[in-house]
């Protein structure tokens, strides 16, 4: 599934994985979240509810990853590959930003991001 992420004048496209957690995330779209910055490497925002069908967890991430952090429940976009790995219980990969994820560096602090399905 293809989605669009819009933050002010920035528009990025991404592809969600074909798994239960990503499908549940897509069911929430369109969605606008206040995304905060964490460690100069990711923007994260609280979802309106926990996602179901949480798949395999991992502790490593790549620039461009869209992930679910269940303790939040938060969604996060990694825009830089800096800092330590993700602590327990780890993250669930939802998908990847196609290119240009590093543009989130320009938004110091928080920024509103709208995620919507591309039809």
Main β-sheet, spatial strand arrangement: 1-2-7-5-6-4-3-8
- The 3D shape can be described as globular
State the helical fraction: under 10%
Determine and state the CATH class: Mainly Beta
Radius of gyration: 13 Å
CATH architecture annotation: Beta Barrel
- Quote the distance from N terminus to C terminus: 9 Å
Q: Note poorly predicted spans.
A: none
Secondary-structure element string: EEHEEEEEE
Number of domains: 1
Largest sheet: 8 strands, antiparallel, barrel
Please outline what is shown here:
This protein has 119 residues and is mainly beta.
Task: Describe the structure in your own words.
The protein is mainly beta. Helices cover 7% and strands 41% of the residues. The chain has one helix and eight strands, in the order ββαββββββ. An eight-stranded antiparallel β-barrel has the order 1-2-7-5-6-4-3-8. The mean pLDDT is 95.
């Amino acid at each position: 599934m293809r989605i669009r992420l819009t933050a002010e004048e920035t528009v990025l496209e991404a592809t969600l994985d074909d798994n239960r957690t990503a499908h549940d995330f897509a069911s929430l779209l369109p969605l606008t979240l206040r995304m905060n910055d964490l460690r100069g490497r990711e923007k994260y925002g609280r979802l309106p509810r926990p996602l179901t069908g949480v798949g395999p967890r991992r502790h490593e991430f790549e620039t461009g990853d869209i992930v679910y952090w269940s303790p939040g429940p938060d969604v996060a976009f990694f825009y830089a590959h800096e800092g330590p790995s993700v602590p327990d219980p780890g993250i669930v990969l939802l998908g990847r930003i196609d290119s240009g994820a590093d543009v989130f560096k320009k938004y110091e602090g928080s920024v509103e991001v709208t995620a919507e399905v591309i039809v």
